[in-house]
Amino acid sequence: MKLKNLFPLFIAMLALMTSCLDEETMTLLDEVQVSSSYVTLPLDGGSTSITVTAQDSWTIEKVTTEKDDVEWLSISSTTGSAGETDLTFSAPTALDGRSAEVLLQCGGKTQRINVMQGLAQISEAPVSEVLAAPDGKNFLVSGVCTAITNTLYGNWYLTDETGELYIYGTLDAKGGTKNFESLGLEVGDEVTIEGPKSSYKGNPQMVNVSVITINKSLVKVDSVANAELPIEGGEFTTYITCKGQGVSVDIPEDAKSWLSISSIQSAGTDVVVKFKADENKGGDRETTITFRTTDGSKNYSTETSLSQKGAIINATIAEFLAAEVGDTQYRLTGVITDIANDKYGNLYLKDFSGETFVYGIEDFQDKGLKVGDIITLVGKRAAYNDSPQVGSAVLENVIPVTPATIAEVLTKEDSNEIYYMVTGEITEIDNPTYGNLYLKDGDSEIYLYGCYPGYGATGDYRKYLIEDKGIKVGDTITVISTKGSYNGVDQLSNGIYFSHESAE
């Protein structure tokens, strides 16, 4: 279905695509704005003007290529000052349609302007080329619809052999918006679209595209049963319409150990494929199954996904950070060291092995959590810009930690369940291996029996904090600890290191 050098149907459609750009996805620069980032000129020559609104002085230049030096395009001015300026683009008569790109520079930012004279030819581009292109360029792209996320505006994913591209908004046959379903586009269909490349928060996309052709897939998944399987496993069923020469099923290699085909039944174009999933003894898992058919000369495919709940894996933060991004659920326990957003609960969680960022806890403002509290949560290994984080976190347990002076702690009863955050000056290091210290705050002093690197430390992981942190007598240290006693003498027991300040 490769379509080379396909002409757009109407120049008016291009103008419509520009006017219909969603405000959220349109690239608007504070330094400079233009009344239109697309300029159209008649084939028999003429002029078109736009308004430039700039916060500073600006320059403009044409982008030349090996095939076109763009001498045919005239611009009324190549420089300007702050304020509003009318900018006129002119071109003589042309035999064929042509296009050019103009760069408007202001305040260190670049506004791209696309100029088209007549019916410019647009060559088909692979997805990879679109992803790498600057915003504002117009492309013709072909691929397969692999997922549809919004059926009103027409938000979906197009995939070819070079990559995947998000489509944000699809125009109907008359160039209108909010009428996506009228196109009849379904997952698995081969489609050719035309439109401008844009981006949202750094993510490439095409916006308000026009559909040129749709080649309906000969195989599609009509419905499924038990798409979310329990831990115990069970049967997953797909109901398929196939107008090709039979159906083949592809299960990904990493899912073949737990998922298998139990039966395939067909009656005319109706096909029912049943799968058997084994008991899941690990974390949450999911996979995507591909169904293929052919008409003898061309291959068609469609996909469906299933997921299975798994056991929650108890993990240290170091083990969590080393895990792959995915849907596996991890249970983590540690101390809140910082709250980055007190509305959504974006915070940092630390145990003896490491520290991780938690991207929000549901209903955080109702939990009453604070820095120093010891919490247990369940979440997925996620990442943002390659930085690890806990996603979809659910709070399971809280051990509140109460800030207290040494004098206040000395008045408390012994308890292994009540934790205090205590700060004091180190007056003596009794055991540097395990961190047995004497702490003083004003006239009050207390013995700290053990200062460990973080919550959850056992065995050798409890050792050598003093040496590793370079802690010395005279330093001020903050620990989280319970109140205990030995031979009738009050002490802090099994302390958790929180922070310290060097006396130097």
Describe this structure in words.
The chain is 6% helix and 54% strand. It is built from 5 helices and 34 strands. The protein is flat. It has helices at 11-19, 127-132, 317-322, 406-410, 465-469, and strands spanning 32-34, 38-41, 46-54, 58-63, 74-75, 79-80, 83-91, 98-106, 109-117, 138-150, 155-160, 163-170, 190-200, 203-215, 219-225, 228-229, 234-242, 248-250, 259-267, 270-277, 285-294, 299-308, 313-314, 329-341, 346-351, 354-359, 374-384, 387-399, 401-403, 415-431, 436-441, 444-452, 476-486, 489-501. It is mainly beta and 504 residues long. Among the domains are: 219-308, Sandwich (Immunoglobulin-like), CATH 2.60.40.3880; 313-399, OB fold (Dihydrolipoamide Acetyltransferase, E2P) (Beta Barrel), CATH 2.40.50.200; 401-501, Nucleic acid-binding proteins (OB fold (Dihydrolipoamide Acetyltransferase, E2P), Beta Barrel). Residues 1-27 have low confidence and may be disordered. A hairpin with a 2-residue loop joins strand 13 and strand 14. The strands form 7 sheets. Strands 2-9-8-4-6 form a 5-stranded mixed β-sheet. It has a 5-stranded mixed beta barrel with strand order 10-11-12-14-13.
Q: Give the beta-strand count.
A: 34
End-to-end gap: 73 Å
CATH class of the domain at 401-501, named Mainly Beta
Mean pLDDT: 90
CATH superfamily of the domain at 401-501: Nucleic acid-binding proteins
